[in-house]
Amino acid sequence: MPFRTIPRDAWDHLLEGNQRFATDTSVHPHSGSSRREELRTGQAPFAAVLACSDSRVPVEMLFDAGLGDLFVVRTAGGCVDAAVTGSLEFAVTTLGVSLIVVLSHEECGAIGAAVSSFEEGDLPSDLTRVFVEKIAPSVIRAKRDGHEERSAIEEIHAAETAEHLVHRIPPVQARIADGSLGVVAARYRLEDGRVTSVEEHFAG
Ligand SMILES: [Zn+2]
């Protein structure tokens, strides 16, 4: 199956699953006991996804994927730390995924907190501060480029995060260059269930 090894095909495969999800025609692949049995000896997911922990963004569901298909990392706001980069590097170098998707979403509370903090010029002193600090570069970039709408800031956060991963994880950069890996920044809309591409890093 070419989508397992060809980055652009992997992305198309995910978009096809999202099309089914958005139109209430999900087929729930790889969800039964036989698949579970098949996976007892190991996993070979074809894509890794970094998404927000928001309960409205269940990654396997919105791509109509099943057991063993996706290596998913979720943090509030899709924020990146050493554990996140380590997890994604593991997905690339050990599991051999052909695609990393960085997925932001409509009405992201963590991004909203970062925007408020920026606009009010005030850093929260509670636990949300860590997310505000991580998301601040995306907000600054959006404002610099004249974007005020939340949707645009959410898209820029996905793009900024994807670029961060490409530049900071050497095996990711190397595999994009040799064509064995793609990195896509995308945004999920609660409104209609659609995932749309924001920025794509593919060889050539
Ligand atoms: Zn969120």
Automatic annotation (TrEMBL):
Q: Which cofactor does it need?
A: Zn(2+)
Keywords, ordered alphabetically: Metal-binding, Zinc
Q: How is the cofactor bound?
A: Binds 1 zinc ion per subunit.
Top-rank taxon? Bacteria
Q: Which residues bind Zn(2+)?
A: C52, D54, H105, C108
Protein family according to the UniProt entry: Belongs to the beta-class carbonic anhydrase family.
Protein name, entry field: Carbonic anhydrase
Its lineage opens with: Bacteria, Bacillati, Actinomycetota, Actinomycetes, Mycobacteriales
